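Field: sequence (string)
Field: structure_tokens (string)

Example rows 1 and 2, in order.
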Amino acid sequence: MDADLDTLCTALYVRADDELKMRPELARRRPRVGIAPKLSDAELITLAVVQALLGFSSETRFLRYAVTIQVSLATSSTVTADLRAGDSRNDTDVA
């Protein structure tokens, strides 16, 4: 991974994580029972922002790119489902 991109990802994650801790009302509500999420809300926010900043309109293409730069991710279907669950408009492109 490029050092600048790595630094940006780290800074975005820390900022999102700190903000979610300071303002828990921003975090998504999670059921008390069920399957535990594989990504935290801060990790999901970081991935969504990086995807947008790099200009990827397709989650599939972004995940392929992320794997090539050795980003550790959950399965692509989990990431896509979590991203869509957080997007009330559900207007993302999957191709």
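Row 2 begins here:
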Amino acid sequence: MDQVQEGLNFNQFGNVTELTRINKMTFNDWLKDCDKLVSSRVGLGIDCLPDARWRDMFDDGMEPIDAIDDAYYDYWSDDIPEELWYGESLMGIG
């Protein structure tokens, strides 16, 4: 059984199994938040886009909103126009 200790999850053998946030967000919950944010911007989930280094961003302590922006610049900017990523305000509408 996993237990939380000083921001880390340890398994029964005392090995670190997953870093956690102050709010105890797991990697899977964090990734779901990233997916929801991307879906709300472009209408596609993260599984429909080129792979990004999600686990590294999570382990670095990035918030989902910052992680999706990094993924956009590093992996998706050639596939998704800025106008779509940033919405109508970039186009001078609204």
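free_text_note (row 2): The chain is about 45% helix and 10% strand.
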